[in-house]
Amino acid sequence: MASNNTKRHILAPVVESTQSGLEYGELLRVSMDSLMANRLRTFLTMLGVIIGVASVVSLMTLGNGASNAITSQFSSLGTNNLTVLPGRPNRGGPPGQIGVKAMTMNDVKTIKVLKLPIVGPVPNFTNQATLSAAAAEKSGQVLGTTATYKDVNSVVMASGSFFTDGNVQSASQVVVLGSSLKTYLFGDGEAVGESIRINSMNVRVIGVLEAKGGNPFGSVDDQAIVPISLAQTRLFAGRSTSGELRVSNITVTVKNTEDIAFVEERLKMALRDSRKLNADGTDDDFQVLNQASFLTSLTQVTSLLTTFLAAIAGISLLVGGIGIMNIMLVSVTERTREIGLRRAVGAQSKDILLQFMIEAMVLSMLGGIIGVVMGSILPIILTVTKVFEAPVTASSVIISLSVSLATGLFFGIWPARNAAQLNPIQALRHE
Amino acid sequence: MTAMITIEGMTKVYTMGEFEVHALRGVNVQIESGEFVAIMGPSGSGKSTLMNMIGCLDTPTAGRYSLDGIEVASLDDNELSSVRARKLGFVFQQYMLLPRQSALANVEMPMVYRGIPPAERKRRASIALDLVGMGNRLDHRPNELSGGQQQRVAIARALAGSPSVILADEPTGALDSTTSEEIMLTLQQLNREQGLTIIIVTHEADIAAYADRIVTIRDGVVLHDRKNEAHHGIE
Question: Can you state the percent helix, strand and coil of chain B, rounding each to 5?
């Protein structure tokens, strides 16, 4: 059976390696062998982590995408704008109008003489009116403003042009239509050059705006914009009880972002002075809306929402981790005899510990990678089809992979310690 | 020739709650290199405890145990693991093969823990399998092998790392008599031709009869220690 040659070979003493214990590569192989030996169980164990990571990635990505979309929309509306409104500030809800002194062209003048680093002030005077063209009629908002409106609100014309300072001085009967209003009144046809009626007055359409979407103060796409002088003196009742010309609000654009706080403060001081209010602001009957701070709080809300959703998804990752721990504990019990055998033939208890730790980490890491891929599918489809811009960010991938690895480490330690601390004699006898 | 195994005054006391169980009460045994020894005794005699001591799976309460020049009694858990890896080869009653691994991988497994490189492991494992007559079954998994074949793979696993001692615990306990005889003859042959030191632990006299020397344990002490007169098998 055995030749002299094999006899020498087999009895040759093993040249012992200088290292003690196993290399990580060998341990990884041992762990992979036992994971591959039971593929279905391996997959089911990973499922919890897969679902957890997939939900974290997709929710974080979609949340960030939504947040970016909102931010960029508001940025396009001019984040350097300050809007002065009548009404008491900080009372919760919409600004109270009852018993509040209206804003007038006097307030506009007060701001103008301050010589602040701003564009404007632009007075806005809004009213509801019946808007009718040959084919259609609707009730809509008419905004009276000045020519500077187009600079302060970054207006882009779809066709025609905005009205001029001259139009405002002479109270010309001209109108610029928002994009939805134009579509409502004229459909796909040409509007510039046509006439519409505002209540009973004929006005000529000289321009149409590009669609812009909503802003906190209503959509400009539904508005008809006319020279403020026309709105105050001829279309609507524009005089206050004291005979001054009323405005609804006043908008200014601060040229440099750094100056916003300073300009806001100066506006308030000047208005309190001219409206004979307390200098400390305790009886203010107007408020200044700051789009930048509005945007900041909006961003805070959306990122809070994203974090909240990701935290909920994180709970499923936690459940996934507990699943790993469960299966690993069962696996240690099931493989008690294998552990006893490995200990008997010379595995140190740290070799056993590492083998099970590596199994847990491979499970969680592999589950994490599959989860990232699955969680990225929806955002990528949405982005590619241009439904919604939600790019998968490196940070969401790194965060969820490291969390799932940490999950494996954390939930793998207990089963692995159980395995490592088994007494080899009892483990061998285990039925 | 110095003794491969020297056991002097070995005692082992297990404490179970308030009771003390004296499993070994002063065992003295000396086994030379190249011997084929059977340790016999009924259950409860202390033979399993003695086997655990010889196998470096446990340490005695008192007494001396020297294995191939190493004083084992005072070693810690990691040192015991290292001695088991380098000096001992185990054969178990239930074969204890990894069910989803090939015969070759099973035989390689213990050498993994000694840091032996993969190529050398494979070489030794295939020689060892060849030596027990399993050279044509390297890729078979345990469930594709009969009980006797599985036990041959287990013997190959025990000897592939060139241990000082092969320790077989009831190696034929799960086998029919024909297969038992084949396995015992294989062990005998390995002892004769390869000069392997083999210790078997059994409670069956006809299995012990294959060994050259029979040590009988009763109540934790050596009752008889004598050469096997009624020797059967190959001479």
Answer: 35, 30, 35
Handedness of CA A190, A191, A197, A199 (dihedral sign): positive
Q: Go through the domains of chain B in sequence order and give each one's CATH number.
A: 3-227 (3.40.50.300)
Query: Cα(B38)–Cα(B108) distance, rounded to whole angstroms?
Result: 27
**What is the full DSSP assignment across A145-172?**
E-TTHHHHTT--EEEE----HHHHHTT-
SS (H, E, C) B39-96: EECCCCCCHHHHHHHHCCCCCCCEEEEEECCEECCCCCHHHHHHHHHHHEEEECCCCC
Q: How far is CA B137 from the centre of its chain?
A: 23
Distance to chain A for B18, nearest Cα, Å: 21
Cβ contacts of residue B3 below 8 Å, gap of 6+?
Answer: B30, B31, B32, B33, B66
Residue A84 CB: number of other CB atoms within 10 A?
Answer: 23
Residue of B nearest to A341 (CA): B96
The position carrying tokens 């908002």 is A141
Q: Which residue of A has its CA nearest to B124?
A: A10
pTM passes above 0.80: no
Q: Which of A122, A104, A285 minimizes the C-alpha distance to A217?
A: A122
State how beta strands B3-16 and B19-32 pair. antiparallel
- Distance separating alpha carbons of residues A103 and A246, to the nearest angstrom: 6
Q: Is residue A127 classed as helix, strand or coil in its secondary structure?
A: strand
Alpha helices in chain B (DSSP H): 47-54, 77-87, 103-112, 118-131, 147-159, 177-194, 205-208
Question: What ipTM does this complex have?
Answer: 0.93
Q: Name chain A contacts of B112, Cβ cutoff 8 Å.
A: 22, 26, 30
And the tokens for A205?
């359409």
- The per-residue pLDDT for range A112-168, each reduced to its tens digit, is 777 777 787 888 888 888 888 887 888 888 888 888 887 777 778 888 888 888 878
